[in-house]
Amino acid sequence: QTSGETGDISLSNNRFYNITARHVFNLFFRTSQVPVNVANLYDSNLEALDATYPSVFHIADWPETCGGGACSLVGNIFNYSLSPGQYHLAVPVSVAEVDSIDAKLSYWGAEDESLVVQTIFDGRDDAGFSSIKYLPYLLTSDPSGDRSSNETSLPFLLPGSILSGILREGDSVTLDAAGSPYESDGSLIIDGFLEIMPNVTIHMKASSSMVIRKGNMKAVGRDDAPILFTSLTETWSGVVVNELYAVSPGFKLLLAYDESNSYSYSLGKEEFNRLFDESESKVLYRYCPQCTASHKNIFYKRSAGPPPAFDAYGAMTCDWSSINNTFNSDFELYGSLEDLAAGSSNRWAFCEFLSGFGFPGRCGPSSRTYYQSSEYLGTCPTSIASYRDEVYWLLYDPQLPGEEFAPEWFPSDMATSGIPLFLTWVEGIDLEHVTFTDGGFGGDYSLSINRPSSNTYKDISVIDGLGNGVFVKGGSSSFENLYIESDISSSGSAVYIGERTDVAINGLYISTIHNGNAIYSTRAGSLSFTNVELRPRYSYQRGFYISYADSLSIDGLLFNQATSLQRNHVIYCTYLAKNASITNSYIDASKLYRTYAMDFLYSNYDSTLKMVNVTLSRGASSNYFYNLIRILRARAVSFHENTIIGAQSLYNGYSTISVQQVSSCFALNNTFSDVTGRGHVMDITTTTSLELSNNRFEGCTIVEAQEYAIVAINSPSINAQGNVFGGSSGYAIAQFGSSVNALNFARNAIEDPSVQFYVKTTQLYTVGNGIVIGPNYWNTTSFKQLNMGAFDSTYDSDLTTIVFESLFIDRAMTQIILSPPSQVILDEVEMTISGTVDDDLLIVVPAGLYYAPGSIILRHPNAILVLEAGVRIMFAPYASIRVDQGMLKVLGDIDNPVLLAPTQDLLAEYGDASIESSSLFDGIYFGANSNPTVLGGGNTYVSGSVIRHCVLEYGGYFSNTASIYLDRVSVALDQVTILGKWDRSVTGVYINRPLDPVLLRGVNITNAGSYGVYVYFPTSTTEIVDTAIEGSRNYGLYLNQVKETNVVRSSVHNNDESNSNSIQVYGYSGSGDFNVTSCSVANNGYGYGMYLIYGSSRRYSITSSTFTQLNRPIYMLGSYQHAVKVSLNRFSENSCTISNCRSIEIDYFGSLIFQGNDLEFNTASQIVSIYARSGYHLPLQGTVISGNIFRQNSVPASTSGSAAVLAMRGSSPSTWIVQGNDFNNPISLYEMSSWGFTSTVVPSNIINATNNFFSFANDNDLSASLIDNRLYDNEEGANPEIIFEPYLSSNSTIVCPGNCTTNGICVFPGLCVCADGWSGENCNTPTCASLDFCNGGNGVCSDFDECSCNEGWLGVSCDTANCTLRNDCNENGFCAIPNVCQCSTGYDGIDCDECASNYRDVDGACIPCPVCQNGGTC
């Protein structure tokens, strides 16, 4: 056995005898070189074993074995007897790999040719294998003895009705019913004329085929006497009508290959060189279709006779060198026959050789050209890959006669390649009333037709095949009545139509029971199918698979599958070049599952698609599927008089009909009946125009998904008239897309609708003030109901307003009523409130229960909406309060807050915890042009928008991402309660880029589904006072890029399930101080309690706050110049058990004071971790850690010195003072560590930790050595040394003057740290800090939290101005400063008792003047 990759094999003049084996010689050879087996004597025995093709000489089926016919088996003597099923020579190698094997002049053990062919297994036995050239053969075992004729002597029709071999050119045979049935002894080749009469049966040998190569065949049966091709035992391959190739006179093909498609043809190296050497012209022509234009056609002309050492084959295919091959001396190059004829004046001027690559290296017409070389199937000894893998070499000599042959390896596009090689094909084929059974062996086709130009195919049946049905390639053909009922292979097709093929089939029935395609076509021409019935009986199967066709016509399709057609299509058409039409068809789509019925994708932008009188029925199917019809890209689509019935159970977001990326669409007179889905029923987007008229939508329902409509239409120009929507239910009737410029939606009938909205817009259009709709019949005469049924600017100010100018009050559309001129936003009779205020109205809503069927929108600079105490508004889903311009004042009080909540919530009597997402409303939105809050001293309200004493539940679901969203505006929130839904991604309060100070006072947020409060990039201060945030799913309080910020008396308690930080302060560009005072942070799952990172020129202060039951209480990462103060806080019961976890971590700072903190019962690898480094380029000022109590904290044992209650490290020069602290942590390994310092970063390389009290052991046993063992420093290999002596014998030795008057903590002898509200050396001076220091001078602090107000100021903190001299502004304004009024809109005067310009007094209230006519004045 041979097995190799490269090289030649020569096996000559050997004798093999008395050998018993399955194969005497087995060629297993991956190469295209020339193995030679010449003049051997085989006198042996074969084992009678179950071997595959037991043979004396066997060529294995392996890619590239004997590639291109490179095996020569000439002159061998096979001299022994064979048992049945044994062979002298077996070549089970496919024709794609080997064209033929030369075994001439061999002896096969017999003189009779019929016996000789029985000893050879090749393409005669299986058409998928190569043929063996055995003629002439030796008549005896004497190599010099007599030979047979060069032509076969075997007749085609043998006695006993046996068909054998080749029907030679010029011969004719008639098979009549008298000799039927006929039986083939192998594959049959028809080069002559074969006529098959009616009622004839032909039994084909297993795996064999009939190839009509050069001849003609007429097989015309009758209805009562059909012709039958079948097999007695196993399946046979099929009938092949072949195509032929011809080479023009003057040329001869020597070598060709297409490596990517495994096509190859070669005369062999010796024959290549011989023909070139013996030619008179000495011209080789290379054609390379993949090369650049200058190198597609190259003629190589030798100037003189080639020297003996020149190897033309090697130079062309492998090694383009100058050896015996000098440019413009030994040879010249030309780019065309014309240039060749013109002579040296047009020859190429540049050539660079490239050893290891084939011709032409880097030669070019005038300069070096790269990547145009060619290498033939790995023949070069180097491992360099081929640049060009499809190349043809021909010999050019005007005396050559040309030739015709049928090499099946050629690619199908050779006819247009431009080389002198062209296609011809067999004509005169008539097949009528012919049945093929049991065909398709090995995936072959029962009937394969190449170039069927003028042939007739009528009443053809393919039954019970195991491979494929009918294959058609090239030319133009027509079929009449093609019937296929077969078990198609998983990757096969009942009908396969190849490239550049025009096919018309009238009468096609296909029923298949296996995977595959009914009709498959790729890159075909014009396809026409009429009267087609498809009945697939297996899943994962397409009906039509059409790719890159010129045009497609299907008329009269009946599709009815027996089982689920999973994940595939009835019609799948991609990259259509011109036009497609589907007409007069019925498709039963009830078994569709996860698929499309019709799918037209990526057609040419000039293509058109027409669908007329097509019925698609889903029945009551509950199978999920995608679009029933999807069209993606075309110029024009026409959809007329079609019927869609019961299209149920679409996947969410998939429309029944989807038309996208088309220029124009016409949908007329179609019917949609009982369509139920989770997307639009019809979704059409065009770039130019859309006509949607006279269609009926009966009983169409949108389920589950909320945002879809019966029709979603989007086009610059839309004409939608005469449509009927009967009994529609779901979200909306019609949705208008983002490209609308001209819309005519009129004379449509909406009958018995059960939808949330009639119509919907999707964005703010550029068509003026709005979209005008009508007149239509809406099943209502109420314009109020109609306007509430339009999802437009009423619900979202980013949407265009829909205007209903008129409507029909009768179904016959004969009576029209016009819309009233305007609508009142507040109806105190029906207790409703909604709509848009677009003028300078003041609307005051008194206490009461109201319903908001739509949004309340303010869109005028002077519009004012006041919600008084006791107002309760229940909002329809998606409705909101939106302030784009103007002012909103929510003025509840402590006893009568304003309540804003979803409809279902109020109907459930306020507080139902089972509110579903569908009941959420859209919250409150303030735009950048709305009126902000104006604050006075002490953050007192002066004017502008405000929300005070308000309860807001479940807001911010649809377009707003927060219950209250402030967009580039500041609105004071005072005593506001927000209830969210933890499973919905909605923030409690979102403040985006506010331009004025931010104030949140008394805000309570529970169960926010995202952030509790998010403040982003404010330009002024942020004040968060008396605010409680509990149970947020994301960060509780997120401050991003903030300026000066104060968080006072507030709490953030996240859910245990949250992994986000309770408080996060982040931002490179943030500046100003950040102060947290008297706050509580607890229960946040895995995140940090407080996470502060970056900022510039900032001072951090965290005082008098508690951090408990957290994973990690504080992480602080500074930058630039930071001063950090952490004092008088309590950290208790915080636990973090992961490796190297730091409970309190402070990193990068300019100076640090960590004083007076109480840290008890915490667990972590480090309870306090302080890393002193300067942050880029600024020096450290020092670190003071004093007066802290560290008691009963747990630090698990670790081999690292970083595991300590107080872990200190540094990388920049700094001074450390650690004094006056109480350490009592008996279950911790180390109390302090200096692990991780860079050397010499502290003065004298020591940390001053004197005067601390250590109580982790019995006082009698406490000693310097025991303390030293609890410190990790230079003795343990760390740096620097911790100096702890002298240490305090008890914590009572720390003495301060007056003991800090019990208003502070003595952290070091003579040093008090005062509690909030006190100052002074011994903490005995009140500051009224919690009262904003009596509002900056409006009073003086007389005692702890007691202010004595100056004249003109009132209130506990002196924050309320007194206007008694101005009659308290007559309740028409606000007292901004003592006895100075700021009047509300519409009022004027120093006491606000006059009407402003353009306002008039009506019953004591100033209201805007009307627009006066004819010169009148107000």
Can you give a write-up of this model?
- This protein is mainly beta.
- Helix content is 4%, strand content 44%.
- It contains eight helices and 131 strands.
- The strands form 22 sheets. The protein has a 41-stranded mixed beta sheet that branches. The chain has a 41-stranded parallel beta sheet that branches. It has a six-stranded antiparallel beta sheet with strand order 27-26-31-28-29-30.
- The longest helix has 10 residues, at 269-278.
- Residues 30-35, 381-386, 406-419, 905-918 and 1175-1180 have low confidence and may be disordered.
Reconstruct the topology from this structure.
Elements (H helix, E strand, L loop, with lengths): L1 E3 L5 E3 L2 E7 L1 E7 L6 E3 L2 E6 L8 E5 L17 E2 L8 E4 L9 E3 L10 H6 L1 E2 L9 E3 L23 E2 L3 E2 L2 E2 L4 E4 L6 E3 L3 E3 L2 E4 L4 E3 L5 E4 L3 E5 L6 E4 L7 E4 L1 E5 L3 E8 L4 E4 L2 H10 L4 E5 L9 E6 L9 H6 L13 E4 L2 H6 L47 E7 L6 E3 L15 E5 L3 E9 L7 E6 L5 E8 L4 E6 L1 E12 L6 E5 L3 E12 L3 E7 L3 E9 L6 E7 L3 E10 L4 E2 L4 E4 L4 E10 L3 E2 L4 E4 L6 E10 L11 E12 L2 E3 L11 E12 L2 E3 L2 E2 L4 E12 L2 E3 L2 E2 L6 E6 L2 E5 L2 E3 L2 E8 L5 E5 L2 E3 L2 E8 L8 E4 L9 H6 L1 E2 L9 E4 L1 E3 L7 E3 L7 E2 L4 E2 L1 E3 L4 E4 L2 E5 ...
Parallel strand pairs: 1-4, 2-5, 3-6, 4-7, 6-8, 7-9, 9-11, 10-12, 14-17, 15-18, 16-19, 17-20, 18-21, 19-22, 20-23, 21-24, 22-34, 23-34, 24-35, 34-36, 35-37, 36-38, 37-39, 38-40, 39-41, 40-42, 41-43, 42-44, 43-46, 44-47, 45-48, 46-49, 47-50, 49-51, 50-51, 50-52, 51-53, 52-54, 53-56, 54-57, ...
Antiparallel strand pairs: 13-14, 25-32, 25-33, 26-27, 26-31, 28-29, 28-31, 29-30, 69-70, 71-72, 81-82, 118-119, 120-121, 122-123, 124-125, 126-127, 128-129, 130-131
